[in-house]
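Lecture notes, unit on protein representations.

Consider one protein chain, 432 amino acids long.
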Amino acid sequence: MKLPHWISRPGRRLTSFGLLASLVSSGCASTIAVADPVLQPNANTACSSITTPLTAEEKGHAQVAWQYFVNNRQPTTGLVNAADSYPSGTLWDQGNYLTALNAALWLGLIDQTQFDQQLTQFLSGLANLPLFEDTLPHKVYNSATGQMVDYRNTPTDRGLGWSALDIGRMLAALHVIRTCHPQHAQSIEAAISTWDLEASVQQGQLYGATVLSDNTTQRVQEGRLGYEEYAARGYELWGYNLPKALALEPMTTVMVEGVEIPVDSRDFATTQANNYVVSESYILEAIEFGLSEPLESYAQDLLEAQKRRFERTGELTAVSEDNVDQAPHFLYNTVHANGEDWAVITDQNQPYPELRTLSTKAAFGWRYLFPDDAYAQQVFETAKTLQAPDGGGFYAGLYEVTDMPNEILTGNTNGLILEILYYKARGNQPIL
């Protein structure tokens, strides 16, 4: 998953504005190419099936979200920044860009020539990334140079390890591209031909790698309920069988706001890994793969719990993991984690309840997954205003305590918004 505590940049105050008018007045509209998609003869036309065209307002949202990638794509590598103007990113972040690029084409934000140029350069950049121990992509890279870096964006020759969850996200994104654009399938497979994916699969589960204090490498099981299944589906698309990772086990349930919520029974105290329950894994699963039972019921229950918290506290609630524009720079806003309801924690289970946010991407996701739900519409009405004044993207969210925006722009937030809008344009049909 996204790796925390490494992005720090000054914030900017939010200004509410009329979206399209602001784009024109700021000069940003001229940098967005809006064109009808031009299909190549061998493109998968099923991906271009737009059955529910975006409204004028939704088109404006898509343009703002895409502008983040216009501003943050690195011309030398074809990779993108995880956060605005910060040249660093994980494989998860690069997967966000790929799905955003695909959505941008079918939504008419770029044309086929632009898509092909950007994808070709990205695949070249991906193929040239140095691998951790010549095995799999490193946890984080300098997006401008392609170098392995630590979480302060300092080059490292040894490296930090790899994340199987991030790799699973990338595999899902690459499958979206080769499905929707089969003319690029050979280049995609060539770009990842040196990856030893078998090294991250053991006994039907996903394993990452981490470097210990004695400089040795340790393999560690990765994934908890929600993200584990999503990442495993990414591997499955490339021929890997991961029955234990897909089994929704070991699982227990807890009562949150009177709603029964599924929780991974492996918590921080017993495994040193958090079992956080958040919105994003269910939203991603829905828009890319579709939700079958019991996952659809789990998603509905998660939204219901967030609605009931609002009814109890008066605080609009749409929680997920997000970058924040101040220390500790990355937080998991949860429905439940490690025995606590509504925990706000770091990856080391340190609490930051004062930095709870309403997540923009979660609000967008719930709105389009459950379009008839009045509460989902209510949180969306707030989230859609959280835009940078220059039209350069959607902010990550809104702080609950101060009612001020979390003024960080990220590829994760803006990429997911584009994917969600593409899902809507397809008539709420999953991409894969």
